[in-house]
Specification:
Shape: globular
CATH class of the largest domain: Alpha Beta
Number of helices: 32
Distance between the termini: 50 Å
CATH superfamily of the largest domain: NAD(P)-binding Rossmann-like Domain
Strand content: 5-15%
Oligomer: single chain
Strand order of the largest sheet: 7-6-5-8-9-10
């Protein structure tokens, strides 16, 4: 997308319309979670089998959580009377917004939603309809209902329904504002109970935000509410509601300009241009300005900073720092509420949500969020008061906090036995590699190993180093320039600094002469002169890392975040190779929707011999077991069980003979096509006597072209998440990654490198 496109309103409009229209209209569809392929499936899904589930629910209403989707189903309900900045556009026109809300529920918290748009302007009748939906849904999200009707609808529904009812425009906004305000006050060194707040806008969101700030400690007498008529004061009758009246001040002041003097915080949920720069100048030192009107805030942030350079500013827009976005809240508060069977979303759960969001912003930014918002400064401070929506840690942190609060406040019908385990399970659902990597991390925790990173200045490496220090027993060693490492840590919002790390500086290190001597001794009869050795030890960080492992100054090395794989392998093998340690192959674990699949050899032997294939198979089996998986290995070729006299077929048939002579304790078979490896029924028709049972979970190819292509296709088109490549045969002393690796991928490789080889070998 070009800058010109970004600035073209018509192009933006057309792109949005195309997004909603293609490839099929709308943003939602319904998919079955059970097979329906034959008469047996039909008999279970519908008549007569469905009656059994019905009978169980008549016995115990809670059984609906086990036999239906209700426990993970939310209704997003509106009458379209107050949609975004569009106003009362009606139920039908609001449907794209509600579909969008449902998409966010699914994307961020894996909650299923139905959007329900109702032609009902009367709030009491609307509440009647919503209450009648209780048997269908586990929770209700009220959305875009005008004030004061929304207060009535929510009150009636909460009183009459035994499931959570949450008006996101009110409480979702209030929760995110509460989290942002918590952190803003933290930076400003102020307390809720001491601050003066001036607010504009007496609608649902504005009132809810003020109510939440009171729960956080703000004193009611310190809140000055203004609307289109000016200050809400005692005795005023024009444009008043019961909700506004609760904030009426006994004062002779009448205008925003008059009451803003000395205010610590401005909360705007009104309209563009309401707050003037000269008003900001009257506020206290380091004022907090939440200008949340959309699409244009009450004051432009740059205009505010012109008169208050140290102001702490939030808006409702994504193109300014500190966007107050309800998506930080609603998916996760519902996730926690649904998972414990909460009967309501109470104050304790909302406050827990605030605390979780606020704490997460003060923690180190996740690598995933940094990748999604590349180029933005994500360090806790004036421009980063709250996390970004794509921070995957939100699910675990916020939902578990909400679940705990629901249990402690007595509204959980299905309390958890272990909230910490629940948090870990949520993380597993977000981080695709977490579950399968669990045994590897557990094994790595049994020892303290020193891992040297050849590309120590890379931001992904720096994030990995911090994670290793915070979460593991491993010790990271970085090769790089300390000043560069320091600047990049600061820029990335990391807590670590060069003094926290062991660093090898290629430009100046006391060990330089020793490393040169070691490398020259190893390579003197391979054409490496002393001068060349000195040059390599100044410039080649892979060689430096290899020498450190050779000398026992590190236990393992990780390299390859840039450059070509075989280039790195050359130096690894030069220094660390021996009669006992030789590269046997590169193994990639691909995490797919239907489970793990291992691919080899993706990088090492372009055209392996049968003996090399056999060694790859044996090494792969050993490494697959590191993940708690019993290997089922298929030798893949264009030939299938001898039907083609090709080079790959001959290689794999000969490799099979080598393996058969070794008395191995795992399943393997070949040679076969990839689809036969993955489809037992197909394989059974082709070769009924196959010794491979079920679906293969390891695919070994006859050349790196085939293995590498399979790996890349699974990554690009099947959404596969890679763990690896794992360098086999080198005694876990070195691993070479590829430039596309993420920070989490590096952390996974670090766990593999951090496991003593005796553990798995």
């Amino acid at each position: 997308m070009t800058d010109n496109f970004n600035r073209d309103p018509q192009a933006l409009r057309q792109a949005a319309l195309d997004y909603h229209r293609h490839p099929k209209p709308g943003k939602l569809e319904i998919r079955a979670t059970k097979p329906l392929a034959n008469g047996r499936d039909l008999a279970r899904a519908y008549s007569p089998g469905v009656a059994e589930a019905c009978i169980e629910i008549t016995k115990d209403a809670e059984a609906a959580q086990e036999y239906t989707s209700r426990g993970n189903l939310v209704a997003v309900v509106t009458n379209g009377s107050a949609v975004l900045g569009l106003g009362n556009i009606g139920a039908l026109a609001s449907k794209p917004v509600m579909e969008g809300k449902a998409v966010l529920f699914k994307k961020f918290a894996n909650i299923d939603c139905f959007d329900i748009e109702l032609n009902e302007p009367d709030p009491e009748k609307l509440a009647d309809i919503v209450c009648a939906l209780e048997p269908t849904f586990g929770a209700i999200n009220l959305e875009d209902i005008k004030a004061p009707d929304c207060f009535i609808v929510e009150k009636l529904c909460r009183e009459r329904m035994n499931i959570p009812v949450f008006h996101d425009d009110q409480h979702g906004t209030a929760i995110v504002v509460g989290a942002a305000a918590t952190n803003a006050l933290h930076l400003a060194g102020k307390k809720f109970e001491d601050i003066k707040i001036v607010s504009t806008g007496g609608g649902a969101a504005g009132i809810a935000c003020l109510n939440m700030l009171l729960k956080l400690g703000v004193k009611r007498e310190n809140v000055w509410l203004c609307d289109i008529e000016g200050l809400v004061y005692k005795g005023r009758t024009s444009e008043m509601t019961d909700q506004k009246a609760e904030y009426a001040q006994a004062s002779d002041l009448r205008t925003l300009d008059e009451v803003i003097d000395g205010a610590d915080m401005f909360l705007g949920l009104s309209g563009a241009g309401v707050l003037k720069p000269e008003m900001v100048a009257k506020m206290s030192d380091q004022p907090i300005i939440f200008a949340l009107a959309n699409p244009n805030p009450e004051i432009d942030p740059e205009a505010a900073r012109a008169v208050a350079p140290n102001a702490l500013i939030a808006t409702g827009r994504s193109d300014f720092p500190n966007q107050v976005n309800n998506v930080l809240c609603f998916p996760f508060i519902f996730r926690g509420a649904l998972d414990v069977g909460a009967t309501e979303i109470n104050d304790a759960m909302q406050l827990a949500c605030i605390d979780g969001i606020a704490q997460l912003a003060r923690a180190t930014t996740s690598a995933e969020a940094a990748e999604a918002y590349r180029g933005e400064q994500l360090t806790f401070g004036p421009d980063y008061l709250i996390p970004k929506p794509f921070d995957p840690r939100l699910m675990g942190v916020v939902a578990s906090s909400v679940a705990r609060a629901a249990m402690e406040s007595g509204v959980a019908k299905r309390p958890l036995t272990d909230v910490d385990q629940y948090h870990a399970d949520l993380d597993t659902s977000v981080f695709k590699s977490a579950l399968i990597m669990r045994p590897v991390f557990q094994a790595a925790s049994t020892a303290t190993r020193r891992i040297v990173f050849a590309e120590g200045e890379d931001e992904r490496v720096l994030r990995t180093a911090q994670a290793l220090l915070e979460e593991t027993t491993e010790t990271p060693i970085l090769i790089g320039r300390p000043d560069v490492i320091g600047r990049r840590c600061e820029r990335a919002g990391l807590k670590i600094r060069p003094e926290d790390l062991e660093i090898v500086n290629p430009n100046r290190d006391d060990r330089y002469r020793d490393y040169v001597q070691t490398y020259h001794e190893l390579m003197a009869r391979s054409g490496v002169t002393p001068d060349l050795a000195r040059a390599i030890m100044r410039t080649n960080t892979t060689a430096i890392g290899s020498v450190m492992v050779h000398r026992g100054e590190a236990d393992s090395m990780i390299c390859g975040t840039f450059g070509q794989y075989l280039w790195h392998l050359n130096y690894v093998e030069q220094v660390l190779g021996s009669d006992d340690l030789k590269p046997a192959g590169a193994l990639s674990l691909m995490i797919l929707e239907d489970g793990p699949l291992f691919i080899a050899d993706t990088h090492i032997h372009a055209m392996p011999t049968p003996d090399q294939v056999a060694q790859t198979v044996i090494s792969a089996a050993r490494h697959v077991r590191r993940f708690g998986i019993e290997p089922k290995i298929a030798l893949c070729s264009g030939s299938e069980f001898g039907n083609l006299d090709s080079q790959s077929g001959r290689t794999m048939r000969d490799a099979l003979q080598v393996l058969d002579g070794l008395g191995l304790d795992f399943q393997y078979e070949g040679e076969m096509h990839t689809d036969s490896a993955l489809d037992p029924d197909l394989r059974g028709r082709v070769f009924p006597q196959s010794r491979l049972q079920g679906q293969a979970n390891v695919l070994i190819y006859a050349n790196t072209d085939a293995a590498g292509a399979t790996r890349n296709i699974l990554k690009s088109k099947a959404g596969g998440l890679e763990v690896g490549p794992i360098l086999m045969g080198m005694g876990n002393r070195a691993h070479i990654v590829t430039p596309s690796i993420t920070a989490r991928g590096l952390l996974n490789i670090s766990a593999l490198a951090g496991t003593p080889v005796t553990h798995y070998g």
